[in-house]
């Protein structure tokens, strides 16, 4: 049927494997638990998929190993922190009825937004800081991406991968140290709008007992958001002329240049786009876990694994691998599994990566000759 | 801030052997004439403050360092004296230690045992530090404690909560003021029984490393003793950042209480995730669902924001305590830095003072003499009430605070409220308790080096 | 001499001189002076310089020659350390069997991992090695706690009684070489200078010299040429009927054994192991050391290791008080200003400086520190040859 090694084969194998796996799991732990963990895997996988998508755009278009990609995710998250700090910029009002820890009258902070819009509207604006930051983060991240590419990465296209690793790793350290200098090392709580707190009871929706399958609203939003972003990136590359040229450039840069097309400028914009995708993933992630300066490093290694498992140079591969690893990670953390295989939750991602790379030489959907030397 | 920094070595040379070459065999120290490692011979004495300055605990480390600088200031007679005025022992005069001016060196543990030992070694070998103190994790505490034992200097542990530090890994040269997992469990259990009843089904999420194991064991033992049932205990990797897949199945299990045996970043994230799932709005077995965090830290609670509200936990010390010692400490720390101290700052400040006091009482910097002075030492006025430094395992025994996340905080520091001060008798255990390494655990013998 | 050509022999002599005279070279400032902060000539750091030098030399045999970028080399360092410390806890406190044990254990481990990982090349290979190392780290930290000690690691305890030892009751075993304690030192004081000669350091240094010699021989051998062929064009090599796998696998195992040697030495110098030694950042560190110094050069990795360890141990210890002392001679306003400027880069900000140095080196000195050294030497030579040296030549950029 399929020629071996085509992306379709790998899709078929993955799908077949997953179905078999699900049947096995349902038999083992019951349908509720499987539904719940699948849901969780999808939401976890969204973050992996979005970061990996940007990373593989940079690999695929520019051939650069970007160790600063995690830092872009982190900067995105701190866009949200910065905006909510900005919105809560306050004047100090002394409250004589209370005292602070030294026994002096307590100074209460009243945000300026409250003065501008009145207390109720002001509070709502602050409450919606995270979604608002999306608007703020898009231009910032595109700018950061473009400056990074023009100012630094551009000079490293022809250099060995080792040099790219060193310079982007150095950049990642510098960026996170700057954030640490201003925001400290502790995580900073950045909650979602209160309208989205709490969780949706899926079980009750489809007529099961309540509390069996519940999942937080914000994580569901995160998944939908990720699906939209990923869809938009694919549509952009597939259906616009710009995207077509970029894809042509990815396949054969020199020919495209010979046609008199300024591919460099388009690649710069792609870098900006990749930065924006990582940044938006970061903004939306802040309510899930309080951001801190090293959150990018925490995701860095994982997103590299995701990209490589997906296959170098393949955008669908990166997305597929992101969701796949997310789901497997969720399943591996179930106590029914841990009872049989203690510690499997510690290594599942790496174990799966090894198995996939050994059975499929270029990951799930990798292209021949990309980053193989 | 322009004191000249003469090291012990520098003085040695200026005083004795200017210009002459000399070779002497020594171990771990610069001078064989000394009776013990890094014996201070000049007019000053150097202490080594080894705290995490990079990595996830950097803010906690920074607070520890602030406390140490304050302690040095007070020991040298500067500032308002802080807890030296309320301390029950009056040996400290504010003229340094044994008349020698206190100086210090700092280092970065990076919260890695290798880096922490490298940093501590450089303090001992290069700077001639006579005592090492600080740290923010049990892995580091155990590693550095082992090093100090070998080198023959005193180790005054910073923030370390695992039973092992003064349990199976206890050392003759190491001392801990901070409380431990066992005490957390013992202090929490009665309060929880009061608040939530004795018929609860608990689900544990436990950080998959030594501290997590000892905490889970302690909390399990003491809650089961009062009638709770443990439904499940699931281990989570230290490097985990998203705990959703561990929290999602909790409700399905039929448990009505979630115990998060996590610290630091793990705790912030797992608690945030649990609240996100809306667990606290749920009803299970006809009871409100509850979450418990055995070890609280105000600095970390800040990272979890509003999620900590109403959640029980234990802590070593909190700045809202109203005894004289705590008030004096909060005042001098707050005046100098502009915000109240954390429990990490408190325990390190107290450790520095306790060490200095022990040297004064022993009349010598010799680690063995200092250890002897600390062993069985009873004191008061340091913020935790009457306290005993037990001789058998070098662990401090004092009241333990059970706290709860505050519902309506007045300020960004006002996150926890004290629910109960559990008296020391309730958290006492035998030195050869099975959770503490059993009868095999031994301090070994004191090592003075040289 | 020793089968080395003249240039290599000179380099080898320089390395011997540098390591043997390290206590002098690393302590250029008199003790007690403000600059003493920058002295690195104390036993622990000197030991780390040479041990991580060995680690990086070994890494370079794989990466520099074959181009295979292993991102999990710290696993071999860690496994070697665990092997060595168990040898000391159970069999003998003599460091030689422990070090040999470390080398053997990591050699076997490298053989297994290399056999599997080398089925792929490029980034696929890097991720495979990374995956194995991360698995080792995660398991050592958690499930394997009974063997590895988990978070708190392994140390020699008073209850440890190795078979070949005659310790008294309650005495803690010490690492030694036929009775010579690793921690013993001789102190030489000349005027205001103090120089420390540490037994452990010299043993580690001799091992490093041997390791360095071996690496020169490997670089210059037919085997080394074969490895370079793998790097330059593996396909062409395959067409000539040569199978590259055995060569790369041999390089991988040798490189793993170097890491095990470094791990064993770490334990010999400081009898303690913790699992962080295997974390991916540790693997990344040796990659950075090698590239920073100059990959595929002989001396580069050692220089890179030295620079990173120096920054880690010296910069991180400078605090605000010390800054104030340095600038104390200035008027108060300027003093505070300078302290404010410098403060973010030292102490808790040492990572920032490290990041900036990584970027600066790779931007301005492609080819690493060795390249920088070469440029400097060229510059000096050219300046000498020109008579009289004009200011212009000093300012012109070196261009051929």
TrEMBL record, chain A:
GO MF annotation: an example: transmembrane transporter activity
Subcellular localization: Cell membrane
Main location: membrane
Classification via Pfam families: BPD_transp_2 (PF02653)
Bilayer topology term: Multi-pass membrane protein
Keyword Chloroplast included in the entry's annotation: no
Sorted UniProt keywords: Amino-acid transport, Cell membrane, Membrane, Transmembrane, Transmembrane helix, Transport
Entry's transmembrane regions: 12-35, 47-65, 128-153, 220-246, 267-288, 300-328, 340-358
UniProt GO BP: amino acid transport
InterPro entries, per the entry: ABC_transp_permease (IPR001851), BCAA_transport_permease (IPR052157)
Superkingdom of the organism of origin: Bacteria
The keyword Cell membrane is annotated on this UniProt entry: yes
Cellular component terms (Gene Ontology): plasma membrane
Family stated for the protein in its record: Belongs to the binding-protein-dependent transport system permease family. LivHM subfamily.
Annotated protein name in UniProt: High-affinity branched-chain amino acid transport system permease protein LivH
Annotated source species: Roseovarius albus
From TrEMBL, chain B:
Stored InterPro entries: BCAA_transport, Leu-bd, Peripla_BP_I, TAT_signal
SUPFAM superfamilies: Periplasmic binding protein-like I
Signal peptide (UniProt feature, chain positions): 1-35
Keywords: Amino-acid transport, Signal, Transport
Biological processes annotated in GO: amino acid transport
Positions of the Leucine-binding protein domain: 45-406
CDD domains recorded: PBP1_SBP-like (cd19987)
Record PROSITE patterns: TAT
Family listed: Belongs to the leucine-binding protein family.
Protein name in UniProt: Leucine-binding protein domain-containing protein
Organism for this UniProt entry: Roseovarius albus
From TrEMBL, chain C:
A matching Pfam family: BPD_transp_2
One function term, GO molecular function aspect: branched-chain amino acid transmembrane transporter activity
Keywords, comma-separated and alphabetical: Cell membrane, Membrane, Transmembrane, Transmembrane helix
Record-linked InterPro entries: ABC_transp_permease, LivM-like
Protein's cellular compartments: Cell membrane
GO cellular component: plasma membrane
Coiled coil: none
Protein's membrane topology: Multi-pass membrane protein
Transmembrane regions listed in the UniProt entry: 12-29, 49-71, 91-116, 123-144, 200-219, 246-266, 286-305, 326-346, 352-373
PANTHER family tied to this protein: ABC TRANSPORTER ATP-BINDING PROTEIN (PTHR30482:SF17), HIGH-AFFINITY BRANCHED-CHAIN AMINO ACID TRANSPORT SYSTEM PERMEASE (PTHR30482)
Name of the protein in its database record: Leucine/isoleucine/valine transporter permease subunit
Origin species: Roseovarius albus
